[in-house]
Amino acid sequence: MPKQLEKYQEVERSIITTYRKTIWSPFVLAVKKYRLIEKGDKIAVCISGGKDSMLLAKLMQELHRHSEVPFEMVFLVMDPGYNLENRQRIEENAKLLNVPITVFESDVFAAAENANAESPCYLCARMRRGHLYAKAKELGCNKIALGHHKSDVIETTLMGMLYGAQIQGMLPRIPSTNFEGMELIRPMYCILENDVLRWKEHNGLQFIACACKFTQNLTGCDEDTFSARRKVKELIAELKKENPNVENNIFQSIHNVQLDTLAEYKQQGKKYSFLEKFD
Q1: Torsion angle of alpha carbons 189, 190, 193, 196, nearest 10°?
Q2: Tens of pLDDT along 84-137?
Q3: CA-CA distances (angstroms) from residue 10 to 14, 84, 192?
Q4: What is the CA radius of gyration of the chain?
Q5: Which of the four pLDDT bands, split at 50, 70 and 90, describes residue 201?
Q6: pTM of the entire predicted model
Q7: Residues near 196 by Cβ (< 8 Å), separated by ≥ 6?
Q8: CB 37 within 8 A of CB 69
C-alpha cells in the first residue's frame, strides 16, 4: 500500500504534474528568459498570505531542489497590522504548506490610514515594498521576489493606456533606486491568474486577500475599490469570447514595441519625438 502523502507533498506534486504545463513550465521559462536568479543570490520571497505569494513560495522551493544554479532563500512575511484572524491564517497556511516563514511587524496600515491619502492602496503598496526591501537587506538578501503574475502585467498595461494615457508595462526585474545592490524580481511573470486559481481550488486551499485596515475583512481591497482594474478584467473577459488569444497578444505587445511608429516616447526620463527624424 503506497504511503499517504502529507498535504504539502500533494500540493508540490500537483505543481509538477497536473499544472506542469500551465504553472511550472511558465515559471521556469520566466526565470530563465529574464535571468531572474543567478549564482549566489539570496532571495527574500515575500509572502502576503494571498494565493499568488503562497504559490510563489512553493515554486521557489521546488526550483531550489532542482536548480543547477545555487541560491539561498528566506520566506519573508511582513505583518503591516493584520487582524488576529488574518495573521493566524497566514501562519497556518505556511505550516500546512511546509514553508518556513520569517515574520516581522510594521505599522504600514496605520501609517497609510493616518496619511488620509486619496489612494490608500497605492500608498500602502509603496510603504510595504520599502519595509520589505529594508528587512531583506538586513537579512543579507540581494533580491526580493514578488508574486505578480502575467494577468497583472496584462491588466496594468491596459490600465495605463485606458486610464493613464500612457503605454507602460511591468518589468520582470527592476534594480532598486533606494536600496543599493537590491533588485525586485517577478518569477510568476508568465503565469496567468486563472491558472493560479485552478491550482488553489484543486488543492482545496484558502488564503487571505488584501485584508487591510480599510476593509477589515478577507476581501481584496484592490479588486473591490479599484474599479479601473475590475473594469479591465471584465473587458479582457469579454474580448476573450471573440479572441481566446487576446491575453497573450497584449502580453506579447510589450515585448514587440515598434518605436518607429510612436509619435513620442520616453526613455530614462527623457522625451523623444518622431519629429527629430525631420530635423
Answers
A1: -100
A2: 999 999 999 999 999 999 999 988 877 777 775 566 667 777 888 999 999 999
A3: 6, 28, 22
A4: 20
A5: very high
A6: 0.91
A7: 23, 51, 52, 55, 149, 188
A8: yes
- pLDDT tens sequence across 243-279: 999 999 999 999 999 999 999 999 989 999 999 999 8
Q: Would you tell me how many other CB atoms lie within 10 Å of the CB of residue 138? A: 10
Rounded (5°) CA angle 185-87-199: 55
Mapping DSSP onto H, E and C, the string for the chain reads: CCCCCCHHHHHHHHHHCCCHHHHHHHHHHHHHHCCCCCCCCEEEEECCCCHHHHHHHHHHHHHHHHCCCCCEEEEEEEECCCCHHHHHHHHHHHHHCCCCEEEEECCHHHHHHHCCCCCHHHHHHHHHHHHHHHHHHHCCCCEEECCCCHHHHHHHHHHHHHHHCCCCCCCCEEECCCCCCCEEECCCCCCCHHHHHHHHHHCCCCCCCCCCCCCCCCCCHHHHHCHHHHHHHHHHHHHHHHCCCHHHHHHHHCCCCCHHHCCEEEECCEEEEHHHHHC
